[in-house]
Automatic annotation (TrEMBL):
It is found in: Cell membrane. It comes from Metabacillus sediminilitoris. The keyword Transmembrane helix applies. GO terms for cellular component: plasma membrane. This is Purine permease. InterPro entries: NCS2, Xan_ur_permease. Belongs to the nucleobase:cation symporter-2 (NCS2) (TC 2.A.40) family. PANTHER family: PURINE PERMEASE C1399.01C-RELATED, URIC ACID TRANSPORTER UACT. GO terms for molecular function: xanthine transmembrane transporter activity. It is a multi-pass membrane protein. The chain crosses the membrane at residues 12-33, 39-57, 64-87, 93-113, 120-141, 153-172, 179-202, 228-252, 273-290.
Length: 302
């Protein structure tokens, strides 16, 4: 029971690490293509659900898919611009037709793409991992200021709260060991949320108004349509995401002291292709490895 509670806490920590990024994408895309409030709510809910399914496909290693590393999958920011452009020109049905088609293509090319591992020496993968960390800095600074579109963006309260949470996490990592150190980010988030509540920055009304259960519906936005230009666009997005994921795979491989080969990479790419395919069927998003969770694994060891 005690071990189960520890595992639950560590799992919640990973969810919270990816939550902001997973929610922002559907909000941006849904608003840009003119979805209604109820449609936007569904989009966010099904996206979170599919993030869990996609992650499960990746960590469940078997003969056909799953890299077997602590990889968390979430909707890729690379797809935001293309999805908005496709949605505005061809309609939302073409968006999901393109995602489904690109997912099938990723599954088909996964073995070939996995063989490219021989062209990724340590100096290349190390550069990719460094780039991942550097590109996350603007995202972190934006969130610390209050998040894109916040009316209080850059306020003293937002910045002070953000640095307070950061200070707590650093202290826990510096002076504690074991389980407390492993969940330092979770503790920082909880304390920060409590303080934010006292500051009037937390609104729980939408949570109380929401229903307890909601079942995902395939093709919620209608039957997908397949247009050549959108399919090519989303396939390019998928290939870019595969390159990004390669860096994440190698980073986690080093952290976990588990060497990966071309077959492992192929299974990892195949999982992403399946996640694309399911994302299109359930009208969610293309999914890729979330780099922010790599930092969490490095800090917590889990």
């Amino acid at each position: 029971m005690k071990q189960s509670l520890k595992n639950l806490s560590l799992g919640i920590q990973h969810v919270l690490a990816m939550y902001a990024g997973a929610v922002v994408v559907p909000l941006i895309v849904g608003s840009a293509i003119g979805l209604s409030g109820s449609q936007l709510t569904y989009l966010v809910a099904i996206d979170i659900f599919m993030c869990g399914i996609a992650t499960f496909l990746q960590v469940w290693k078997n003969r056909f898919f799953g890299i077997g590393l602590p990889v968390v999958l979430g909707c890729t920011f690379t797809a935001v611009g293309p999805m908005i452009a496709i949605g505005n020109e061809y309609g939302v049905s073409a968006v999901y037709g393109a995602i489904i088609a690109s997912g099938i293509i990723v599954i088909l090319i996964s073995t070939i793409f996995g063989k490219l591992v021989r062209f990724f020496p340590p100096v290349v993968t190390g550069s990719v991992v460094t780039t991942i960390g550097v590109t996350l800095i603007p995202v972190a600074m934006n969130n610390m200021a209050g998040g894109q579109g916040s009316p209080e963006f850059g306020s003293v309260e937002n910045v002070a709260l953000a640095f307070g949470v950061l200070f707590v996490i650093i202290l826990l990592n510096r002076f504690f060991t074991g389980f407390i150190r492993a969940i330092s980010i979770l503790i920082g988030i909880i304390l920060g949320t409590v303080v934010a509540g006292f500051m009037g920055m937390v609104n729980l009304q939408p949570v109380s108004d929401a229903s307890w259960f909601n079942i995902g519906q395939p093709f919620y936005f209608g039957t997908p349509t397949f247009e050549l230009a959108p399919i090519l666009t989303m396939t390019i997005v998928a290939i870019v995401s595969m390159v990004e994921s390669t860096g994440v795979y190698f980073a986690l491989s080093d952290i976990c002291n588990k060497k990966i080969n071309e077959k492992d990479l192929a299974r990892g790419y195949r999982s992403e292709g399946l996640a694309y395919l399911l994302g299109g069927i359930f009208n969610a998003f293309p999914y890729t490895a979330f780099s922010q969770n790599v930092g969490l694994v490095q800090m917590s060891g889990i």
